[in-house]
Write a structure and sequence with these properties.
heterodimer; A: 424 residues; alpha/beta; FAD/NAD(P)-binding domain; five-stranded parallel sheet; four-stranded parallel sheet; 11 helices; 29% helix; globular; B: mainly alpha; Cytochrome Bc1 Complex, Chain D, domain 2; 6 helices
């Protein structure tokens, strides 16, 4: 005997009444209308999973300013010439096959009372629940002398993958052998804790092969390497000895773009041929416009059981924009986990049920120290009801024992699978 | 006929809830954490092990062997230590039911 879907829903409805006797969740079908702002790891995953878990019952509209998704993870390999930008780019057609309506546009305002989102085009979208996953924006005042125009033309950040990734690759290609590439790292917290150190490795790998007289200078505002310290230090010593130099406690006090010089409070000024300045970061612009920033004028506080904003009801915030729980990295992988917490909660709430208990979430971040050599950091996080936040589980998680080739294969497999899970 | 359908649906819900006396949604949500690497609903697109359709007992044994160190791993020995036996069983239930 086969049940068609309608029969099953009817039967499940009756079963739900019966199930109440057992304390089971009901089978009511979710319905309503969700708008998702941001088509990165978080927004894309949320849009897909809300469609999937509501069995198509919830209408989902995704607003994204870019025509396609460009992955920050693996983009450092583009800088090294090991991958092309096309290799890290995925379109939104996969989401459309799940019934997600994709609108290319820029969300500029949210009215949490009327429950509407306004786009730069003037278009208004109404929602029952809103997901805000805008990633990060830069705090330009964190680097005196740096402007958005300068940062988009000569002194690149390349901390949002896309045209800036291609442009930085071009600067590295154009640099003379014997030149200096300097990467300036902001104080934590910032997006992708190991990312800057991976980038230093990948640029050094390119120099080692093509421009061996050149130098990589890491100017870190933090007092020490923020992530995978031992593994990165070992790579700089073993693979790039004399080429990579690490300097901690380098908080920028001034930039002279014409002289290509950075000034610091307590250290000598640095002149470089390619200056890659990653400014300090905060929640993406729409989070501020929507009044979702609740901590240090930078980050969005959430109820971790549902990812719902502590500032506005019916608005869920994901990913790098959130005020991170203890030891929770701002990573693409973690953002997809946020998206699944939110999707589970939203589908339950829009079915007239209570949000389920929070799931256990995990994070794995791979970093390339060379084109064929990778290290990882992994962690598992569970909700602590007493302290109302996620905490890492003692004894779980950890680092690679050493850089290895097997994980280079896994890192690419991870990338292809997480892109497909988010967008496919 | 109608009652047979209801009986089937009741038994389906019953199966999903049996392991943990909890609901299907939590099992599904828990399992989705694995999908970032192992593919949506366990359908890996390659390079990492697919979980869809893996018999429940096999998955429980594999994860526990990672946890104990009996099976060497690059990451799974670290991730598996973050899950209780009951949570592993919930996840195994979900993936065993995926076609």
């Amino acid at each position: 005997m086969t049940l068609n879907r309608r029969d099953f829903i009817k039967a499940a409805g009756a079963a739900a009444a019966a199930g109440a006797l057992y304390g089971c969740a009901g089978g009511a079908r979710a319905s309503g209308n969700v708008v998702v702002i941001g088509g990165g790891f978080g927004g894309a995953t949320a849009a897909k999973y809300i469609r999937m878990w509501s069995d198509g019952g919830i209408d989902v509209t995704l607003v994204e300013r870019n025509p396609s998704f460009v992955s920050c993870p693996i983009s450092n390999l583009v800088l090294a010439g090991e991958k092309t930008i096309a290799d890290v780019t995925t379109g939104y057609d996969g989401l459309k096959t799940h019934g997600v309506r994709v609108v290319q546009g820029d969300a500029v305002a949210v009215d949490p009372v009327k429950r509407t989102v306004r786009l730069a085009s003037g278009q208004e979208l109404s929602y029952d629940r809103l997901v805000v996953s805008p990633g990060i924006d830069f705090m330009w005042e964190s680097v005196p002398g740096l402007t958005p125009v300068l940062s988009d033309s000569r002194i690149l950040h390349s901390w949002k993958a896309g045209p800036q990734t291609v442009a930085l690759r071009k600067q590295l290609e154009d640099m003379k052998d014997g030149g200096v590439y300097a990467i300036a790292i902001p104080k934590a917290p910032y997006r992708c804790p190991p990312g800057p150190y991976e980038r230093a490795c990948m640029v050094a790998g390119y120099f080692k092969a093509k421009k061996p007289k050149s130098k990589v200078l890491i100017l870190d505002a933090n007092e020490d390497v923020v992530s995978k310290k031992g593994l990165f230090m070992k790579a700089w010593k073993d693979l790039y000895n004399g080429m990579v130099e690490y300097r901690p406690n380098h908080v920028i006090t001034g930039l002279d773009a014409n002289a290509m010089t950075l000034k610091f409070e307590f250290s000598d000024a640095v002149k470089a041929d390619v200056l890659n300045i990653i400014p300090g970061q905060m929640a993406g612009g729409i989070a501020k416009a929507a009044g979702l920033i609740t901590a240090n004028n930078r980050w969005c506080g959430v109820d971790w059981r549902t990812m719902e904003s502590v500032a506005h009801k019916n608005v869920h915030v994901l990913g790098d924009s959130t005020l991170s729980a203890p030891a929770m990295p701002k990573s693409g992988h973690m953002t997809t986990q946020h998206a699944k917490i939110a999707a589970g909660a939203i589908v339950a709430l829009m079915s007239g049920e209570q949000a389920p208990d929070p799931m256990v979430i995990a994070n794995t971040c791979y970093s390339f120290v060379a084109a064929n050599s990778v290290v990882h950091v992994a962690s598992v996080h569970a909700y602590d009801a007493k302290d109302k936040t996620f905490k890492t589980i003692p004894g779980s998680g950890g680092l690679s024992a050493a850089a290895n080739e097997l994980e280079a294969t896994y890192a690419m497999a991870w990338a292809r699978n997480i892109w497909a899970d988010a967008l496919g | 006929m109608k009652y047979r359908k209801i009986a089937l649906a009741v038994s389906l819900l019953g199966l999903a809830g049996a392991a943990s006396a909890d609901n299907h949604a939590l099992s599904r949500n828990m399992a989705s954490a694995c999908a970032s690497c192992h593919g949506t609903n366990g359908h890996s697109i390659g390079g990492l092990y697919p979980l869809a359709g893996m018999p429940k007992d096999e998955m429980i044994r594999k994860v526990k062997d990672f946890r104990s160190g009996a099976t060497p791993a690059t990451v799974m020995h670290q991730l598996s230590k973050g899950y209780t036996d009951q949570q592993i069983e919930m996840i195994a239930n979900f993936y065993a039911a995926q076609k």
